[in-house]
Structure formats: structure tokens, C-alpha cells
Amino acid sequence: MIKAEVRRANGERLRRLVIDPDFNPVLDGVSVAAYPMLSSIDPYGDTVFNHLQVKRIIEEIARYSGEAEGISEFLSELRELCVFSLGAPHRYLWFIGD
User: What pLDDT digit, counting tens, does each position of 69-81 carry?
Assistant: First the structure.
């Protein structure tokens, strides 16, 4: 199961979200052209995004919400986690695959 975390640059975990098992943009074949950030999440390894990339993820979540069925509540929670990561400098959004 993939987890998403907001961490400080020193590795301190600030918030955590367990990813909905129905959300797997890589294995679901999400378009790299349409969703470059979401499609780069590694379901088997770690993926880290900085504040510039998180801003793009928020935009992609807004577009992806229209295509995703049954996971709108989760996408809302993921968006909130992204916004939280932008709330202070030196925060990073991590996706931890298994």
C-alpha cells in the first residue's frame, strides 16, 4: 500500500495519508502527457516532490477528479495534504511505495 507524507528537509514526518488502493495512476495507465506529476509516482519505491512540483500536483488532482470514479473523497484529502506541504518552507511531499 502506498502512503503519502509531508516531511521537513530533515526527514521529520509532519502528516501522513494512506493512499486509497483504487488510486494508482502508474498502474492504471494515466497519461504522462496529461498528468506528468501523478504519472511519475512510483508504486514500488519512493517519490519525492518539492514545492514547485506540489503546485502542479494540485492542478493535476483538480483535472483528474473528473475522470476518477469512487475516489473523490480521497483526492480531496490528498489535495489538503498538498496544500499543507506548501504551508511552510522546506517541506516535501513523499509517496512511499511498497
Answer: 778 888 899 999 9
